[in-house]
Automatic annotation (TrEMBL):
UniProt family annotation: Belongs to the glycosyl hydrolase 20 family.
GO cellular component entries: membrane
Species of provenance: Chitinophaga rupis
GO biological process: carbohydrate metabolic process; glycosaminoglycan metabolic process
SUPFAM superfamilies xref list: (Trans)glycosidases (SSF51445)
Catalytic activity of the protein: Hydrolysis of terminal non-reducing N-acetyl-D-hexosamine residues in N-acetyl-beta-D-hexosaminides
Protein name (Swiss-Prot/TrEMBL): beta-N-acetylhexosaminidase
Segments forming domain Glycoside hydrolase family 20 catalytic: 84-297
Residues of the active site: 193
A Pfam family it matches: Glyco_hydro_20
GO molecular function: beta-N-acetylhexosaminidase activity
Keyword Hydrolase: yes
Signal peptide boundaries: 1-22
Length: 366
């Protein structure tokens, strides 16, 4: 008996050592330590709603996704502005199913409505400017029958005029209603790839500083959300200097909006997207005092490098900067149904090879 008592502490030491060795040799996945582990995709159609909810339960939750940004835009039956609702849009009851699924899985659900920019696509005017053409920042630019890029008008996507006296009444109604429906404390306003801003012919914006115009719209949206204790999220490309960095006009700004980075409130969440290179811009945003989320799309090697960078940024950061590196969010730019077709192998495109949003997602969120 005395021998057994003598051996007991030794056995405990060996067990503790074995357990700690198992933990140390287990494969480390830096994604697990991130505050935000996100997924961004277009909201499903009514027809695809049930399958998408199943995807939340069976694919997102087991991968420890804790944030879901749904690009809703006008795929919702707005009561405040029914004239803006797309045909066949989701009802409040449909959205309630999404809300319930996310609650069950403890996923932060955030709606996105593209504001300022992305008010058109190719040859089609977006819902807001089609219903309220007076909001158009560049009304002199007509939508072409056959869209090509580049073009003489520099038309990529239209913008609304941020200084139009009536635009924010409509925008605020939409923001408030969709946030209420999503039962959320955050809203994603898009605001990426804004090529049209500060039109010289605009009676309100002409001659004004483009950085101040952009920052002013960020502040306006942020302040309205703050009244109901909600947080503003935006894409970060317009806050980067495209010429100095060599990042160009898509992933950064070539029309001088980048100076707005010093003019916007520090509680705005920046979603920093780079799809072809693991640019180190999270450090830039963090050192500006802004929280930042790294956003890949379809190249697994780039996304894995971004995750590795993010892990190093957080481990090597000061205690003041570490909280700025909030996490990573996979972006998907096809409709939800098309993504699920790809994800479940129902449809594939041989030309894409390994560079698909599905492969990117699986590479990061194992």
């Amino acid at each position: 008996m005395q021998k057994l008592l003598y051996l007991l502490p030794l056995c405990l030491i060996l067990l503790v050592h074995a357990d700690s060795h198992a933990q140390s040799t287990a494969k480390y996945n830096p994604i697990d330590s991130l505050p935000v582990r996100g997924f961004c995709i277009g909201a499903p159609s009514v027809k695809g709603l049930d399958e998408f909810i199943t995807f939340i339960h069976k694919e997102l939750a087991p991968r420890h996704i804790n944030t879901l940004v749904l690009r809703i835009d006008y795929n919702y039956q707005y009561k405040s502005h029914p004239e803006l609702s797309d045909p066949g849009a989701l009802s409040k009851q449909d959205v309630a199913k999404l809300v319930q699924a996310c609650k069950e899985e403890r996923i932060h659900l955030i709606p996105q409505v593209n504001l300022l920019g992305h008010q058109s696509w190719a040859g089609s005017t977006g819902t807001l400017l089609r219903v309220y053409p007076a909001f158009d920042e560049n009304p002199e630019v007509k939508m072409p029958a056959n869209y090509v890029w580049p073009n003489e008008d520099g038309l990529y996507c239209k913008s609304y005029c941020p200084l139009h006296p009536e635009v924010h009444k409509v925008v605020f109604d939409v923001m408030d209603e969709i946030c209420d429906a999503f039962e959320t404390d955050a809203f994603h306003a898009g605001m990426d790839e804004v090529f049209y801003i500060g039109n010289d012919k605009c009676p309100r914006c002409g001659g004004r500083d483009k950085a101040e115009l952009f920052a002013g719209e960020v502040r306006t949206l942020r302040n309205h959300l703050a009244e109901k204790h909600r947080e503003l999220w935006i894409w970060g490309d317009r806050l980067l200097d495209g010429k100095t960095t060599g990042m160009g006009m898509w992933e950064a700004s070539m029309n001088n909006t980048h100076r707005a980075v010093d003019l916007i409130p520090k509680d705005v969440m920046i979603c920093d997207w780079h799809y072809d290179r693991p640019d180190k811009t999270p450090v830039y945003f963090a050192m500006k005092g802004l929280r930042v989320i790294t956003c890949p799309w379809r190249k697994p090697q780039v996304a894995v490098a971004q995750l590795d960078d993010l892990d190093h940024f957080r481990r090597d950061a000061t205690k003041e900067l570490k909280p700025m590196y909030q996490g990573m969010m996979q972006t998907v730019w096809s409709p939800a149904e098309a993504f699920l077709d790809e994800y479940y192998g129902r449809k594939t495109n041989a030309k894409d090879g390994e560079n698909t949003s599905t492969n990117c997602f699986k590479a990061v969120f194992k």
